[in-house]
Amino acid sequence: MSDRPLDRRTALASAGIAVAAMGSAACSSGADAPRAATDGSIAEDVLTRVADVPIGGGVIVGDTVVTQPVAGSFLGLSATCTHLGCRVAAIADGLIACPCHGSRYHLDGSVAAGPAPRPLDTRAIRVDGDRILRA
Ligand code: FES
């Protein structure tokens, strides 16, 4: 039996260990490092900017709705409709609209119309300077 297959096996095993070590190093540095936004701020809890939430309206950010019913007063609400769980999709004329069966919610989350049986759940948010974050 020649040494050649063993050499190839050894070389492949060494290469696998090297690749695994590189992957581990990449994962650990990524997991430990906080995510930074392009402006240098920490992005992980930021939902939106104060300036992006219209007075008398709101914005939908993933699973959260951020509204500003009156100037300077912000509310966090779940984006999940309380009827059958669709995600609300639009905010217009002071109402949050579910596209599935026509439920509408006021900016404080209370039901304005449709089959929704209860208000949108609240989400804890906080304002930090010009940013709105998950609390
Ligand atoms: S799931 Fe929203 S109205 Fe039915």
Automatic annotation (TrEMBL):
What does the UniProt keyword field contain?
A: 2Fe-2S, Disulfide bond, Iron, Iron-sulfur, Metal-binding
Report whether Repeat shows up as a keyword of the record.
no
Please report the organism this UniProt entry assigns to the protein: Nocardia pseudobrasiliensis
Domain annotation Rieske: ranges: 45-134
Fetch the Pfam families from UniProt: Rieske
* Source domain of life: Bacteria
The molecule here is called Cytochrome bc1 complex Rieske iron-sulfur subunit
What InterPro entries would the database entry show? Rieske_2Fe-2S, Rieske_2Fe-2S_sf, Rieske_Fe-S_prot, Rieske_Fe-S_prot_C, TAT_signal
Q: Which residues form a coiled coil?
A: none
GO terms for CC?
membrane
- CDD domains referenced in this protein's UniProt entry, alphabetically: Rieske
